[in-house]
Design goal:
alpha/beta, Rossmann fold, 2 domains, eight-stranded mixed sheet, globular, disordered N terminus
């Protein structure tokens, strides 16, 4: 016989179900703020933080202070290969062995944006494979899957034993470089990653566990000389994250990369890159729980008279055009006026391969990710100081690109091809100005030659021809046969590996043979600490030198 339920009891039960349902879908800041949000960080060397140094954090203003412990954040870890560093339980979050991991900036970003307590479990070891070490079914080598599973289970049990409520909030994964050296692992990376996710959700009893998969950085040496293999791994990652609604592909190719000896390139993010790496995961997670991006300055009024002609300058390039190591905090003492939105210059941008895109036109101001800026600030300021008016700036950059990515043909890594996006960006910028009621003249494309291309022989050898291909095709596609290109080049890397290739003369030849292409070989930079990438003063100097081409 069915038991009758009183109406009040039924309503109470229904209300309870509704409350639980609502709580499951509310953003983190609206739910139980005493529930600890647990995040797992796992992977190989670029998750460990290899070739980073805690002492270097102070060199990067947005991240100062992250070398100190974060006592409000719990941390449990097992890091390393043969000689592992272990926390042996929960400790306050802090660097391990003087190395900077992405968890440091991640935690600070998340705790500043939410009120719930945060805990991080990290297990990572350099040179490990998903196909072997991390294989959940047949782990080999360092047997990372069972090692990490035990670390997580033990860490969570300690929380439970202490009566601490928790929820596993996300799994941050950065790995894949070593799988590309094994043909079978490389071909099966997508299949193996899918199985990896399934096993974690099963073994942690978390069927809805969210994964954040970090892109392999194309700015590194391997992103250049092993382009096909890196691309194969990226296809596997994207295949899985696109098919899995609880997985997200997190771009990281635009973050800083350590400047190595010799030619200047490196395999690892290093200190700056690791700090930015963590911000990428934090922002991806915060978007997941409903946090909105920061508000950008808006134009108080359209700065140009209706029907008047606006000169459009298009700035384009790689690491230094993006401003990888130029920080707004460095402007405050000597160049503070450049921090203020310039309401007389309309600014449109697509930065870091599309990771930051303006919503229409903004007043010119710093817009880079991680509190960075590019040469556009001093470029526009110098133009105005010389009496130029009625101009707008549009900027398109990807610091994780090389010059073959900008050619019409691109490379076999099709997802890295930038030319169609660059062309569309220019066309849209021109049309946007017309839609505002202005005539528009494309004053020129100001392109800074790729820095990484100067540091690897095949790229350095082919840079002039790639530059020429881009220039010639852009004039055809934009139907502007006399379109002016203003090519700037900084002194290329000096090293015995590349010195025999006279790229400066070769690029000068390309430019001299075309009356509408102008070369500006920029020398006399303020003293720079590193090869390839300019600091804040160097970027300001570069912008002025670019502007001086326009009399």
């Amino acid at each position: 016989m069915l038991q009758r339920t009183s109406l009040p009891s039924a309503l109470t039960a229904l209300a309870t179900v509704l409350v639980i349902t609502v709580l499951n879908y509310l953003p983190v800041h609206a739910q139980d703020d005493d529930v600890v949000r647990v995040f797992v960080f796992a992977g190989q060397s670029n998750m460990v933080g290899s070739d980073s140094k805690v002492a270097d954090i102070q060199r990067f203003p947005p991240f100062r202070g992250l070398g100190e412990p974060q006592p409000e954040v719990r941390f449990s870890y097992c890091i390393g290969r043969e000689n592992k560093s272990r926390s042996e339980g929960w400790v306050p979050l802090a660097p391990v062995n003087g190395v900077v991991g992405p968890e440091l900036s991640f935690a600070r970003r998340v705790t500043r944006q939410t009120t719930a307590p945060v805990a991080i479990i990290k297990c990572a070891a350099g040179g490990t494979h998903l196909g072997g070490d991390w294989n959940p079914d047949s782990p080999e080598g360092f047997k990372m899957y069972p090692l990490t599973l035990k670390l997580i289970q033990d860490s969570l049990k300690q929380l439970s034993d202490a009566g601490t409520r928790y929820r596993i909030e996300g799994f941050m994964w950065h790995q894949g470089e070593n799988d590309m050296f094994n043909e079978g692992y490389m071909a099966d990376y997508g299949k193996n990653l899918k199985r990896f996710f399934q096993c974690w959700r099963r073994d942690l009893n978390q069927p809805d566990l969210k994964f954040y998969v970090g892109e392999l950085c194309t700015k590194t040496i391997w992103g250049m000389d092993l382009r096909p293999r890196m691309y194969a791994i990226s296809l596997g990652q994207k295949q899985v994250t696109q098919a899995d609604p609880k997985a997200e592909y997190v771009p990281t190719s635009h973050v800083g990369v350590e400047i190595g000896s010799g030619v200047g390139l490196h395999y690892h993010y290093g200190t700056l890159g690791q700090l930015e790496h963590g911000i990428n995961y934090a922002d991806a997670y915060l978007r997941t729980i409903g946090h909105k991006s920061e508000e950008r300055p808006k134009l108080a009024a359209w700065p140009y008279r209706k029907n008047s002609t606006v000169q459009l300058y298009v700035l384009a390039g790689h690491r230094n055009m993006e401003g990888e190591r130029a920080f707004t905090q460095d402007l405050e003492l000597r160049h503070g006026h450049l921090l203020n939105p310039n309401q007389t210059v309309a600014y449109k941008y697509n930065l870091a391969g599309g990771q930051r895109v303006s919503q229409g036109w903004e007043p010119l101001s710093p817009a880079g990710l991680y509190d960075t800026f590019g040469p556009e600030l001093s470029f526009a300021n110098h133009l105005q100081s010389q009496g130029h008016q009625q101009f707008a700036v549009a900027k398109f950059t990807h610091s994780g690109s090389q010059m073959n990515d900008w050619t019409p043909a691109g490379s076999m890594a099709k997802s890295r091809n930038l030319y169609p996006k660059f062309l569309a960006f220019i066309q849209e910028s021109l049309q946007d100005l017309r839609d505002q009621g202005n005539e528009v003249e494309l004053a020129g494309i100001v392109y800074h030659v790729g820095e990484n291309d100067m540091s690897m022989p095949p790229y350095r050898r082919d840079a002039p021809s790639r530059l020429n291909e881009m220039i010639v095709q852009s004039r055809t596609d934009l139907e502007l046969p006399s379109l002016a290109w203003y090519v700037s080049q900084q002194p290329p890397t000096r090293n015995e590996r590349v010195d025999a290739i006279d790229v400066r003369s070769a690029i000068a030849k390309v430019c001299s043979e075309d009356p509408n292409t102008h070369l500006n070989f920029v020398e006399g930079f303020p003293e720079q600490e590193k090869q390839l990438v300019l600091d804040s003063e160097g970027i300001l100097f570069l912008g002025v030198q670019m502007a001086q081409q326009f009399k």
